[in-house]
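Re: zinc ion structure - here you go.
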Amino acid sequence: MKCRVCREPAIIDIRRHNANFCEEHFLRLCRDQVTKAIDAFSMITPDERCLVAVSGGKDSLAVWDILLDLGYQVDGLYLGLGIGDYSDESARYAREYAESRGATLIEVSLPRTYGFDIPNGSRAAKRKPCSACGLSKRHLFDQAAIAGRYDVVATGHNLDDEAAVLFGNVLHWQTDYLGRQLPVLPARDGFPRKIKPLVRLGEREMAAYCVVKGIDYIVDECPMAKGNKHIGYKEALNAIEATSAGAKHSFYFGFLDRASERFQAEAEADQAELTPCIECGSPTSTEVCAFCRLVTRAGGHLPEGDHDIRLDAWFGDHRHVEPVLDDAYPDPDPDPDVGAGADDAIAVDLSPTRRTPKDVRA
Ligand code: Q46
Ligand code: ZN
Ligand code: ZN
């Protein structure tokens, strides 16, 4: 098996490209695919500041790494969800990576700052864990990005994730979600732009990328993911891909090219008028935003002190600039009750990818 570019021994085959690559040219392929996605969808420019949602999994660490290598200004934000050992371990991988690159990692702890964790809080609030988790992530990443004056939030959604979410949305004809399932969600009402730079790269490639670059990541999946429909959709698509290489790519990019526009009017019409939440100041279509309602029902509390002090607690030494006032940034707060299936849910490292040469090397 030889590299398509240099004819040296290859370390990976990528069937949908019908090609094999050596280490050097595989890494170049990953960077090129990200560049292509960034250019095609006008995701980010070098003078913009980016906050990447870091879970400690392969995708979020890979997207951070590639964006740094491409010269973008990227800090990481890790959200501690209080999911036992899983959270402790994933935080460790995020910190180790940040340290190895001399990069800035901002950490926010749901239990410490808001007084609840996902397993107990979701039970108390009578919500599915992934639903409470997805809502918390969206709210806190948006709030952190606006407070830290980041232009854009990047997530590690890869082609497998996007194809699986699309599959689920089509299966249930969730047309409002279909209208918002894009690699870029533009900034709106003071909200940061959201981008998915890995949409041209698959899950297996991201695992291989981390192995080749020596990036350690959490392999175990979140214990709360059991029974998540997203996993079943991925398995179904993997079975199709096994006999039809490139099926996921043509499903997802065919949708973007030829169908997604048809659903956008409905998604836009759904966007209600927003006013600041009376509790936290985040924009919402109701008096109290969905996150603050969750905090109350989960038995938690909003951070103590005024807003400025709270932001200091979040950003610590990493706070770059004065924050904008709470009510300066509204939030669409759609509160979709679908956890990992939401169009803008944070990176999902659900696959039990193993970092073994057998899996990574063809
Ligand atoms: S972390 Fe959170 Fe995922 Fe765990 S509780 Fe569900 S949504 S599965 S990305
Ligand atoms: Zn090569
Ligand atoms: Zn609120």
